[in-house]
Structures are given as C-alpha cells and as structure tokens.
Amino acid sequence: MPAFLSRAARTRIKICGLTREADVDAAVEAGADAVGFVLWSGSARHVTLARAAELARRLPPFVMPVGLFVNATPPEIDAACTAIPNLLLQFHGDETPAQCDAASTGRRPYMRAARMKPGFDLLDFAQSYPNAQAILLDAHVEGYGGGGKVFDWSLVPSGVLRPVVLSGGLSPANVIDGVLRVRPWAVDVSSGVEVGKGLKDAELMRRFCEAVREADARRADADRGE
Ligand SMILES: O=C(O)c1ccccc1NCC(=O)[C@H](O)[C@H](O)COP(=O)(O)O
To answer: Which residues form the N-(5'phosphoribosyl) anthranilate isomerase (PRAI) domain (predicted)?
Structure first.
C-alpha cells in the first residue's frame, strides 16, 4: 500500500443499502463519502437499477455511488455502469478474480469483499485479486452480507498492501474502536444505522460519521505521541 494511504488524514465512510431519497440526502449531510445500492435481488435492501440511478442522481460531487453485486453477469455490470457512469463496483458474492476482471472489463475500479473467519488468509486473498482497488472486510454471514455481524478484527493482519474497508456490524458504538484497531482506509455500515432493512436513520448516520471523525482525531493524537 502506498505510504500516503497508511497516513490518510481521515477515514472514508461508506453507508450501504440505501433505498430512499431522504436517506441518501441524510447520508450526504452526515458526511458519507460513498453510498451503496444493493443491486442483488436476493437482499431485503435491493433496489432496481433504475431506482439506484434515480437515487444516485441526488449525489453531489465527491460523494460516490457504489453498486453492490452478488454473482452478477458482465452484461448486468455493463448495464449498471451505463446507467450510473461513476459507479464503483463492489463484488460481494463468489466472484473469482477472472470474473471480477471480466465484469469490470479489467479497467473499471472495483472493491472485492472478503468474508472474514478464523483461518482465512487475507494476504493470499488480496494478492489473488491484483486488480481490486480495495478489499472490503466483512463478517462471514449467511446470505453473503448485510448481516450486522462483527468479525474478529484481530484476524486482520498487518501488511495488507491494499486499501481495506472495514465492514460488518459497525455502529456508532463500536466504529471508533474499529478505526483505532484496524486503521482501515474506509469503513462501511448498513445495519448499524438502520431502523429497518433498507430504512436508514438520519441521527444514527450522523452519529456514525461523527464517531469516525472522533476516531481520526484520536488516531492523529496517537500518531503525534500525544
Ligand atoms: O446489505 C445487504 O443486504 C447485502 C446483501 C448481500 C450481500 C451484501 C450486502 N451488503 C454488503 C455491504 O457492503 C454491507 O454494508 C456490509 O455487508 C455490512 O453490512 P452490516 O453488517 O449490516 O453493516
């Protein structure tokens, strides 16, 4: 990982599984850097591509839409990238490196989710996806993701030479600890800021983003030896 990534001034924030205009607006207002739309029909947070494009058009500059896919086909990915041109791809299924590269036509930026469990070799996994712009570390849950479950953060080895996104069961209550212990490039949250599947709570999103900023302040103090 380039040195600048390990000394990033702030932890980026992705809020995932949005389905409503008011929630997109509240996520932006809270300080999200990216908002995720679940384009997999097997999720209770699923939105159609047309709906995701409609919601994504509300985003101001410098807030990125993320398309979440589970074992989608290249034509499905192409359609999504046509409908939402600046879409960051997130592959959260069983996609192989070749399938991820084919689906992103080898050039579109994508994140690859890793489902963390004891014995999982994250370094080997990351090396097997050389074109992944980031590795999203999620808990190993039934149904691929969005399970609201925290994995054992001690499973994250040092030396992952790729930006990592810490995910899985984060909330305003635990994200400071997660940022200080894992020091990820970004954090990702869904269940922890919801009042129902796909129904986000503006106050929880605000508190989550505020907690990440507090974590960054503490991290900076620690780095200065204060
Ligand atoms: O959010 C979903 O419903 C989902 C369904 C199937 C695969 C992935 C899914 N979400 C992926 C995400 O990026 C979630 O933000 C991530 O799994 C964390 O979710 P949570 O533990 O609820 O914060």
So the answer is: 13-210
Mark out the alpha helices in 84-147 (DSSP H runs).
Answer: 97-103, 122-128
Q: Which mutation among 190, 200, 208 tests ligand 1's pocket best, with the greatest number of atoms within 8 A of CB?
A: 190
Ligand 1 contacts CB of residue 148 (under 6 A): yes
Residues forming a β-bridge with 196 = 199
Question: Could you tell me the residue ranges of all domains in the chain?
Answer: 8-224
- 205: which residues sit within 8 A by CB, 6+ positions away? 15, 23, 26, 27, 30, 32, 193
pTM of the model: 0.96
Ligand 1 centroid, distance to 24 Cα (angstroms): 16
Residues with catalytic annotation?
16, 138
ipTM: 0.98
Q: Which two three-digit tokens encode residue 211?
A: 């907690």
Per-residue DSSP letter, 171: -
> pLDDT truncated to tens, each residue of the chain (226 aa)?
666 666 677 999 999 999 999 999 999 999 999 999 999 999 999 999 999 999 999 999 999 999 999 999 989 999 999 999 899 999 999 999 999 998 888 678 999 999 999 999 999 999 999 999 999 999 999 888 889 999 999 999 987 888 999 999 999 999 999 999 999 999 999 999 999 999 999 999 999 999 999 999 999 888 887 7
Fold exhibited by the domain 8-224: TIM Barrel (3.20.20)
